[in-house]
Design goal:
The chain has one helix and 27 strands. It is mostly beta strands.
Length: 370
């Protein structure tokens, strides 16, 4: 194996498995072709936020959480992001109401409006109608039979105005077969490597904004090296938030936010709670955990959201003391005497009596024998 090929393999054979970044190192000449050794260790980089793009920076083994863009560049949709974990969260797009103002990008249409289904529709202008093709180096712009706006190119060297406050002395020039408006561009370079230099085309003022080095990781201290203009990310310590509802006491280690332990969702009176990171909630499960107390004399307990509640529906355990002259009802789990059936016929269980009736608590009859 040549040295150049060996170096190429060293650069190329980096993989990540189960959150651990591995480097496949070529063996010495004459030995096995590759040898897997651990180079960088990355924890799970999932911050449970569907509005970030999570990745592992293999140069330093730390997680990145770059913001997700949900802009679909459609003027007839309202774009937003739901931070809940997918599939519950993520980019959301809603069609703007029918008649909402929009721009279909065609200079040969007018009265552009949304159709309520996410499409911007305009009324086509008649061929020959005046329009503006957006090129200051064309004149007599008009709509063609195909509904496109075009004009007659002006002669190179003609003065023009590109409507950009950051250019001056504009004149028409022939570039790649087309006549375009060109001028002297204002120099906004401030000489600092840690600024992004640009000119505001509206005001013509220079804007020298700091280079954005924020990697979205709360466990790194982000800065720009003024000598090179490169972003640096130093590791920090202390508490952090890994975005997972089901972990607590998160802490920074090696530039990553690690879980300090699982969340205790508590122990209910019955059933059990378990944590769901996908929904970011503690959810109740009535099929596991402790059961409700044994049933009392009547009625029975049911488990409702972790609490044992006495069932108030008709009891599955009817009340009866065996006395035909009394009526018992179930009251909050206990059988209680409610009324006497005085005067009602009954059976005292004796063959030596006739015409048995209830007399208060007792069932009595007339003796057959005097």
């Amino acid at each position: 194996m040549t040295e150049s090929l060996r170096r190429g393999l060293l650069d190329a054979l980096k993989i990540c498995l189960m959150g651990a970044c591995l480097l496949l190192v070529p063996a010495h000449p004459g030995e096995a072709e590759t040898l897997a050794t651990e180079a960088l260790t990355c924890p799970s980089c999932d911050d449970f936020n569907a509005c970030t793009i999570d990745s592992c920076d293999t140069t330093n083994g730390t997680c990145r959480h770059d913001p997700r863009s949900c802009d679909d560049h459609n003027p007839c949709t309202a774009d937003s992001c739901d931070p809940r974990p997918e599939p519950y969260g993520g980019c959301r797009r809603a069609f703007l109401p029918t008649g909402s103002t929009c721009d279909d990008g065609n200079a040969c249409s007018s009265n552009d409006a949304c159709d309520g289904a996410g499409t911007c529709v305009g009324v086509a202008q008649a061929a020959g109608s005046a329009c503006d093709d957006g090129n200051p180096c064309t004149g007599s712009d008009a709509c063609s039979d195909a509904g496109l706006c075009g004009g007659t190119p002006l002669a190179p060297g003609t003065e023009c105005d590109d409507h950009d406050a950051c250019t001056s002395g504009e004149r028409c020039a022939l570039v790649s077969g087309a006549v375009v408006c060109q001028g002297n561009v204002k120099n906004c370079d401030d000489g600092a490597l840690c600024t992004e230099d640009r000119c505001d085309p509206i005001t013509g003022q220079c804007v020298n904004a700091p280079v954005a080095c924020d990697d979205g990781n709360s466990c790194t201290l982000d800065a720009c090296d003024p000598a090179t203009g490169a972003c640096t990310h130093g590791n920090t310590t202390g508490s952090c938030e890994d975005g997972n509802f089901c972990s607590v006491n998160d802490y920074c280690s090696g530039g990553n936010c690690l879980s300090g332990g699982p969340r205790d969702c508590g122990q209910p009176q019955c059933g059990s709670y378990f944590c769901r990171p996908d929904l970011q909630i503690c959810q109740f499960n009535d099929s596991s955990g402790p059961s409700c107390p044994a049933a009392p004399q009547c009625n029975y307990y049911v488990c409702v959201n972790g609490s044992c509640q006495l069932n108030q529906q008709p009891s599955r355990y009817p009340c009866s003391d065996g006395n035909p002259c009394t009526v018992e009802y179930c009251v909050r789990g206990d059988c209680q005497l409610q009324l006497f059936r005085s005067g009602q016929s009954c059976d005292d269980g004796s063959l030596c009596t006739l015409n048995d009736v209830c007399n208060g608590f007792n069932c009595t009859g007339t003796p057959k024998c005097d």
